Amino acid sequence: MCQIQQCMQMGSNNGNGRVFCFTMPSLAAFPSAKALFYVTHMNCPHLSNSTSITELRALALQSAGETDSSRKAEGVIAMATSWQAGELSLDTQQSLVAQQSIPGRPAKPELISPKFVKHRSMLTVEGRAAMIHALTHIEFNAINLALDALWRFAGMPRAYYLDWLQVAAEEALHFSLLAAHLQTLGYQYGDFPAHNSMWEMADKTSGDILARMALVPRTLEARGLDATPMTRAKLAQAGDQPAAEILDIILRDEIGHVAIGNHWYKVLCDERDLDPVATYATLTVQYKAPVLRGPFNLPARRAAGFSEIELTALMDGVPSASASK
Asked: For residue range 25-37, what is the model confidence (pLDDT) as tens digits?
């Protein structure tokens, strides 16, 4: 287990690498989430010490099947560490088949329909904990979604897999930060019911990488760009500044995740000689993607690579720019 912080440099397909840090298993030693970015010491085991798998995508598939949420997050971070250390290979062509249930999940939280998820007052500790729990669950699902993009789809350029490794590692960071903060409120991940809407779209798009890029990062993740500022404001108003600072980290990273989805969606559209806007409209109908309702975080969406045509369609209520998370 990582007892102190680990920081690493990860590069994206556009060459804009950045350092990000992980605290495992808890944030308790730090006065605020911002402290994460001032520590650079590494003291975490590499996966090569604990597994015989040395190929990145096969290892991502193994991690996807892990049922313990904390071990999954730690394992993903260790996988990224091992890749950075040159201990893993990458086979972009191998077709992998899951031998276990995907994704691996803990027994709790209980998964229920979104319409049965209770909304609690943010003025109570329980209400704030329920909100933090919902965000923690989103990030747990996001780890699984990134791992799935990494292992499932063969034949993509090397940069594609490294992008999704970066996303998986950052989602593991987000989950760990939120789960640790939830504990400071007296609760654990799994203490509240949650819904499974995010993974349902992954199941629907498991057979087509174009649909996956269109409807998961550009749709599910992009909805988070709209929702996060409002959630942050509510938590800050309720006096939960550490949670607000964690959401600052998440929003910054999620812009990059959506940008990665936008990049690969447009690469795939170019390869198939498809118009990105018209194709997205078709896919939202074909896969029954939820239609977005505003308000929209247009600056964040622009930073994530949405075109002005897409944003105009979004504002006009046209499905070609709809999104939901």
From this structure: 333 333 333 333 3
Burial of 40 (0-12, 13-18, 19+ CB in 10 A): exposed
Q: Cite the DSSP H helix spans in 85-191.
A: 125-152, 158-184
For 107-125, the DSSP string reads S-SPB--GGG-----TTSH
Q: Above 90 in pLDDT, residue 298?
A: yes
pTM of the model: 0.85
SS3 271: helix
CB atoms within 10 A of CB 271: 9
Q: What length is written for the chain?
A: 325
What SS3 state is found at 28? coil
Integer Cα distance of 107 and 148 in angstroms: 20
- Give the span between the Cα atoms of 93 and 162, in whole angstroms: 14
Structure tokens at 65: 């099947």
Q: What are phi and psi of 6, to 5 degrees?
A: -130, 130
Q: What is the pLDDT of residues 45-85, one digit of tens each?
A: 455 445 688 999 999 999 999 999 999 999 999 999 999 99
What number of other Cβ atoms are within 10 A of residue 108's Cβ? 14
Quick check: helix, strand or coil at residue 134? helix
CA distance 150 to 161: 5
Give the torsion through C-alpha atoms of 238, 26, 245, 189, to 10 deg.
-50
